[in-house]
């Protein structure tokens, strides 16, 4: 199929209704290859529903959703979309608490959720090199042998981001990564996403404005299932409609 857009992610006219209520209402959202985009908006604005459409969890009633200009996300299932190169990190970390940091990454590399089978086989040299690289990226090298259950909340979130990186996604969707983090962890997470963004495209949903400012990227404000404003954080913050529905609250 020929590419109809240069965008990595292209949503246009996407509508999702739940019993007549439009969680997304003719939403347009376009992300260029290599971009990092922050998505903000009040509770119920449709942020999660948008992520669900991108990952194939929710089917839109109407609209276009393309990845790399040709893959129709409305026709693929969640596993196919993950294989295409879209990875998602949910808000709550779901690491294997009883396994070490390294073993969690090994499990993610193998793409196998059966710890006994994977860990019995141990890792190959190339897997070990890749694990070292990911540990470096997510700054967990010093705690690599610790059980994941012993990590701080922030470290668990970084481990889970590392597990996502193991799958080599071209596009990472990250849902409220800094909720519950300390200020220092929040600043480190902004640095981490900026490092990741050097080689991958990132869409991050977050309510924490200090974090969004630290990312220093284009911001999309969702409201009632549509884009209310888009641009730099300073630009959208100066928009009276954004202040009224979100920032002023
Ligand atoms: N499965 C569902 N059935 C019915 N209504 C739903 C369903 N999923 C979402 N909604 C509604 O759709 C609207 C958008 O929800 P969504 O979770 O996408 O918003 P959000 O921007 O992610 O909010 P939050 O910041 O609270 O996570 C909400 O009013 C929600 O109640």
Describe the structure.
The protein is α/β, with parallel strands linked by helices and 249 residues long. It contains ten helices and ten strands. The strands form two sheets. A six-stranded mixed beta sheet has the order 6-7-8-3-9-10, sandwiched between helices. The protein has a four-stranded antiparallel beta sheet with strand order 2-1-4-5, with helices on one face. Strand 4 (62-67) and strand 5 form a beta hairpin. It is globular and about 55 Å long. The structure holds adenosine-5'-triphosphate.
Strand content: 15-25%
Unreliable sequence segments: none
The end-to-end distance, rounded to whole angstroms, is 46 Å
Strand order of the largest sheet: 6-7-8-3-9-10
Radius of gyration: 18 Å
- Bound compounds, please? adenosine-5'-triphosphate
The number of distinct helices, counting runs of at least 4 residues, comes to 10
- The average pLDDT is 92
Short synopsis of the structure:
This protein has ten helices and ten strands. Helix content is 37%, strand content 24%.
List keywords for this structure.
single chain, 249 residues, alpha/beta, six-stranded mixed sheet, four-stranded antiparallel sheet, 10 helices, 24% strand, globular, binds adenosine-5'-triphosphate
